[in-house]
Amino acid sequence: MKVIISNIFLLIGLIFNLLGCIGLVRLPDVYNRLQASTKCVTLGTCSILLSSMIYGGVLVGTKSFLCAIFILITAPTAAHALSRASHIAGIKLCKGSVCDKLEERKKNEEA
Questions:
Q1: What are the boundaries of each domain within the chain?
Q2: Do the beta carbons of residue 24 and residue 33 sit within 8 Å?
Q3: Percent of the chain having pLDDT more than 70?
Q4: Which of 11, 40, 84, 85 has its CA 20 to 30 A from that of 77?
């Protein structure tokens, strides 16, 4: 039973990682690509680490848990910093983007 549950989480992680890689290739601008890659890392890799926690035992599970916590803290933070720096550097959003909250905030602060 442990192997089946571990394989299910492994498959879920692999699917998220595959979809994240496809998103990196197909999405139109840096902001959408960052969103896809962050989802890929947090959900895909953490699912694979959960699989190794279930299958590997206490020692492997402890290391996997610590890695998952580290990834859950650093990946969204890094994506936020990269997207904010890209916006400040002047990289435009794609034409299909609906709103730009950071630009609206800048205009409100200037006024």
A1: 2-110
A2: yes
A3: 99
A4: 11
Query: 8 to each of 5, 55, 90, how far by Cα in Å?
Result: 5, 11, 42
Query: Stretch 9-25: mean pLDDT, rounded?
Result: 93
Class of domain 2-110: mainly alpha
Are the C-beta atoms of residues 94 and 28 closer than 8 Å to each other? yes
pLDDT of residue 98 exceeding 80, the answer is no
Per-residue model confidence (pLDDT) at position 94: 83
pTM: 0.81
Among all chains, which residue has been given the structure tokens 């190794």? 52
- Residue 92, phi-psi category: left (phi > 0), alpha (psi -120 to 50), beta (remainder): beta
Look at residue 47 and tell me whether its pLDDT is greater than 90.
Answer: yes
- CA 86, 87, 90, 91 dihedral sign is positive
